[in-house]
Amino acid sequence: MLDTLSTIFSYHFMQRALIVGVLVSLCAALLGVSLVLKRYSMIGDGLSHVGFGSLAVATAMGLSPMLVTIPVVVIAAFLLLRLSSRGRLKGDAAIAMISTGSLAVGVIILSMSKGMTSDVNNYLFGSVLAMSASDVKLSIVLAIIVLILFLVFYRPLLAVTFDETFARATGSHAEAYNMLLALLTAVTIVLGMRVMGAMLISSLVIFPALTAMRVCKSFRSVTICAAIVSVICFFIGLILSYLLSTPAGASVVVVNIAAFVGFSVAGRVRQARG
């Protein structure tokens, strides 16, 4: 077993995928708990579609995909929160409108351009081979910043997650912390698109949180459990993708589904005994 792992991670592209994937999985799981509890779990899917559209435009114009996509997705995240908070559009409607519109723009740009299909497909479906050294360095720095900000503002984020109205009444800057949550989510989504792809990155936000909620009850225990499950599932999925020659993103999702089923069974058994 150790020899197999040593062989797998002797390749630089697997090392890069592992480093970025673990960091992104950790960030997505931590943020996913708040997003799921706030009934905003599909924001990851919406922002990934926005990311795909901006990636298509950036690639067609010969610009740096990561440097263009991050600010665009951050702006989209802020816009989603603004539309929802003002009551003009429900959260799911705002996500559907922005995500489908961005996806349509990306598809049109892709159809009008030549020689960029393979590059955009790497973002759309994910590819461990697509991680360059510069991508890894940028991803590590941004992921560490996301983790630090989450830990520093853990209590305010907890407050706005469970009772935003009460948080506002007690003088907490609820809107600012919602914006912070949107910012961290947007950055995490963009970082994960290289490995997981735009179509599957939202699974890292949703599955670990829902899985942890099958057996854990408190916010802290759910957060810790989700982070552990997310990292382990990514690690197993990455290994399976190499051994079975399957896409990394899809393999990670299948492992997350298996973990969700297993935790659901364990939760029901514990309830039956209790």
Q: What can you tell me about this protein's structure?
A:
By secondary structure, the protein is mainly α. The chain has 13 helices and no strands. It has helices at 2-8, 12-37, 43-60, 65-85, 91-112, 117-125, 133-152, 154-162, 164-169, 174-196, 202-213, 219-244, 248-273. Helix 4 (65-85) runs antiparallel to helix 5. The longest helix is centred in the first third of the chain and has 26 residues, at 12-37. The N and C termini lie far apart (38 Å).
Structure, briefly:
The protein is mainly alpha-helical and 274 residues long. Helix content is 82%, strand content 0%.
In total, how many beta strands?
Answer: 0
In helices, the fraction of residues equals over 70%
Broad shape? globular
Please, how many helices? 13
SSE run: HHHHHHHHHHHHH
Assign the structural class, choosing from mainly alpha, mainly beta, alpha/beta, alpha+beta, or little secondary structure: mainly alpha
Q: What low-confidence regions span 5 or more consecutive residues with pLDDT below 50?
A: none
The largest sheet is: none
Strand content: under 5%
Q: Radius of gyration over alpha carbons?
A: 19 Å
